Amino acid sequence: MTIDANQLSTRQTGLLYFLIVLVPFGLFSWAFLHMKTNSAYDELRDKARQLSGVHALYVESFFSETIGRMESLSIYLSGEAEDGGLTQRMLVATHRVDPRFSGFYIANEKGSIVCSSNPSEVKGNIAGRAEFKLALLTRKRQVSEPHFGQGTGQYYVSIATPIVSPSGDVRHVIIGSLQISELEKGIQHLVRSENVRMYDRAGHVLLDTRDLPTGSRTVSSSILLEAVPWQVEATLAMDYANAVWKPYLIYAAAMLVILSCVFFLVRAMLAKKRLDRELARIEADKLKLIGTIAAGTAHEIRNPLTGIKGFISLLSQKYTDERDQYYFALIQTEVNRINAIVSELLLIGKPAGLRKETIVVQDVMKEVLPLFESEAQLQHVRVTAALPAHPLHVAIDRDHFKQVLLNLSKNALEAQEGGGEITITAAEEGDRIRIRIADTGKGMSAETLRKLFVPFFTMKSTGTGLGLVVCKQILDSYGGSLIIDSRVGAGTTAVIDLPAARAQ
């Protein structure tokens, strides 16, 4: 099974999109939703805790007021003479002004009801009621467990308060029947979006304000009351869409835009790198083609050149006229130029780097500098060399290294115009050896720098356009590189970069 270039590129793009966009977006979504959900629950839990406290405070206040009413009534009646008619009117009047109670009645120490705001209750007996017994025994107010009224379908609570005579005896107990529905009405006025429930100590639901949406996520908070052994619970339903999904969609859209921009940027960078590699491959193919042509034809070109050169020499001896000599000199110059191009073509065609030897950079530079300095003096160019005391070792053919130094030094010298300075330095930088040849010549533009290593491109009237190409190929074959840095009017610096070698 074969895959063409387009299919491979599509798969690579898909993988890149998966790694740069989908994976980070998935991780972001998981982390954001997890964090936002927890945050929403925490906020809702705090709000539920506040609301349960508000409702608990209301219930406590409600019971404090009703118990206070009972205490006031007990104190008032304890100071009055036993007058059934007056007591009856007092109970009826209190019942009318306080709708929280379904009725009041007074029982003697034997539990028989002697007076009531509802005349129908006078014949009853409450001797067996726990709150009545405790009120007689402790001489303190007692609150009964909630009891369900079969006829009304509502919960009631009885508050038994002893009526203590001036002599300190307890002969009567006043009982107020408190309606839980009245408590529920007050709580309903406070309820907004929460559900409020109240439980007795047995877990029976005494009131339930409203139903929350079915299937919604809820958070509850409960508080135990002090006035009665009950529990108030506030429950809130989470608006998940607004609390979590809405902010998630906003941030997710922004995150998706950012990741997509990163994806397109990375894809553009990779495309540029692929283009650069393709251009480098094309340049390498061009050099390879040149080398192939040179290897096959250079010798064939040199043979006739040798004959032409010999015949020109013979003809120049036969025809001594000044005009003829001028033409012979021109022909000889062009033949020499052709021979120089052929020599460089032969070098490009040869596989460089086959004869590695460890050499000392300073030793080779000391051989090259005298040859170079003599020509520089003729052009009034000052040459400065700064070489370290410790030897710098590189693994390269000595002749190749010398050729690179001479070629770059010659270029630096030819770039000077009426004097100037050339500085040559060598240093060890990490595991690399770098030799810099800097001149103070006219420099080159960015456009010229891009064409420097194109075969046959030259700015010299007598140049071949192959010198830098040869230098670069030599250094590349030894694992090095050639870097040219130049600015118009600021001179040029050529950097020879080679791997450092161990001394042998």
UniProtKB/TrEMBL annotation:
Membrane-crossing residue ranges in chain numbering: 15-33, 248-270
EC top class named in words: transferase
GO MF term set: ATP binding
Main localisation: membrane
This protein's UniProt keywords: ATP-binding, Cell membrane, Kinase, Membrane, Nucleotide-binding, Phosphoprotein, Transferase, Transmembrane, Transmembrane helix, Two-component regulatory system
Residue ranges constituting the Histidine kinase domain according to the UniProt record: 296-502
UniProt cross-references to SUPFAM superfamilies, sorted A to Z: ATPase domain of HSP90 chaperone/DNA topoisomerase II/histidine kinase, Homodimeric domain of signal transducing histidine kinase, Sensory domain-like
Matching Pfam families: dCache_1, HATPase_c, HisKA
EC numbers on record: 2.7.13.3
Membrane topology field: Multi-pass membrane protein
The keyword Ribosomal protein belongs to this UniProt entry's keyword annotation: no
Catalytic reactions on record: ATP + protein L-histidine = ADP + protein N-phospho-L-histidine
Listed Gene3D superfamilies: 1.10.287.130, Histidine kinase-like ATPase, C-terminal domain, PAS domain
Compartmental location: Cell membrane
Family annotation (PANTHER family): PEROXIDE STRESS-ACTIVATED HISTIDINE KINASE MAK3, SENSOR HISTIDINE KINASE
Name of the protein described by the UniProt record: histidine kinase
Highest classification ranks of the organism: Bacteria, Bacillati, Bacillota, Bacilli, Bacillales
